[in-house]
Amino acid sequence: MVSRHKHDSSLDPLSLAIAPPPNETPEERAKRLREEEEAVEVSRRIDAELKLAKVALKKRKDAVQVLVLGQSMSGKSTTIKNFQMQYAQKAWAEERASWKAVVLLNLVRSVNTVIDIITGTMEGVDLLSSDPSSQLTPLNETHRNLSRRLGVLRQIERDLRLLLGSGADETEPEGGDGGPQFTPKVQEFCVQSSSGWKGILSRVRGPSTGKENDVQRVAFQVISSCRDDILRIWNDPGTQSVLKNRQAHLEDTPGFFLNDINRILSPGYEPSDQDIVRARLRTTGVQEYQFTLDRGNHAPVDWIIYDVAGVRTSRAAWIPYFKEITALIFIAPLSSFDEKLAEDPRINRLEDTFSLWKTVCSNKLLAKVQIILFMNKTDILRKKLESGIKVKHYIQEFRDKENDYETVSNWFKKLFKRLYLANTTPSREFVSHFTSVIDTEATSQTLVAVQGAILRNDFVNTGLL
Ligand SMILES: Nc1nc2c(ncn2[C@@H]2O[C@H](COP(=O)(O)OP(=O)(O)OP(=O)(O)O)[C@@H](O)[C@H]2O)c(=O)[nH]1
Ligand SMILES: [Mg+2]
Predict the structure, then answer these.
(1) Which pTM value belongs to this model?
(2) What's the gap in Å between 245 CA and the centre of ligand 2?
(3) ipTM exceeding the 0.95 mark
(4) Residue 196 CA: which ligand is closest?
């Protein structure tokens, strides 16, 4: 019969290994016990962290994940700002002050553009056209003096750009043209940041002190000291006539704040919601925003929205997100029918958008993803058409149709729908909205509709409906 031996630690190699030394002094014993306690504490902490990571991963998997896509300047970040304003009011309020530096940068950039055009005209260097009639200018010595005095704003623009990082530059660093298709440089551009604007916030304000950044403070002072000169040069009929002659419609360019200069330079200025949606800062890498959407009687739902860079060289960074997402919002700026891509002036911007749209609709990884089209910048489209710009001069297929807003916008919608139906997976519905995402009130209605549609679709896909 086999008898059970009482456990003998002298026979157990593990017990032997961790047993205290035979001649341990009281100090050594105290030290050993302290170290053992610390080790237990570290292990407990790791367990807790692992548990938290697991919960976070599950939360992420359960979240509604939305990718916002479109070419650069289409209005992706502005759409997400609307989401933030509506559903993440605390973060929105905390970040408000950080937009001041962006507004100031946008403002000085417009002034510097005006000065570039004026000095170019005065020196006989035609910046925007080769029209010989433009050599006759209504400019004089006053313009020259004002431009010279405002030269100090060049340094202010440089300082603010440095403060705000690479997104403050409209041009991409050197690096090849990927074309409208996705290039294979995924890793290189896949810079994930979960901080979004918070990164900028901490750069603009001291992260711990919350005090206004020196660069921003000096910029505000210098721009304030130039206010009268800026107003004189901007409101001058000669300047306006030169700008008109050069077809430099500054008022319609992103981040235009020259008409708000008195308000912006008043003491204690803080950007309004409208200022923030109108401010322009290019997205670099991928930024992530999280919201919890309260749904009245239903359980709240977590949302993760990804904002990506739209320039051609960054589009490869979109692909890894295709596998994760629930829905994709595609932003198509309709007003761009007469513009060229900044990164490749040979390509019409609307053609690039159509080409991207086709690629997205036919992408196999997105076969089950709900796609929602925002036909954006309708306010600028309307203005352009009313000012007499003819669509047929840029898109021949439009032919001799009426050049009014209703006809043009509905014709564009038909083109998007036709491309969609020819390329999408069967039974996926075509969902589209005409938008002007700087109109926050109208956009909030659109977002409610989008939210409902995405949740409904998600429930159907997960078998909950
Ligand atoms: N007038 C008008 N301006 C808009 C509209 N949508 C966006 N904008 C402006 O256009 C500029 C560019 O918008 P963003 O949201 O930064 O563009 P984006 O698609 O994120 O661009 P990238 O980050 O470069 O990819 C901003 O100054 C916006 O205020 C619109 O519907 N109407
Ligand atoms: Mg952006």
Answers:
(1) 0.83
(2) 31
(3) yes
(4) 2
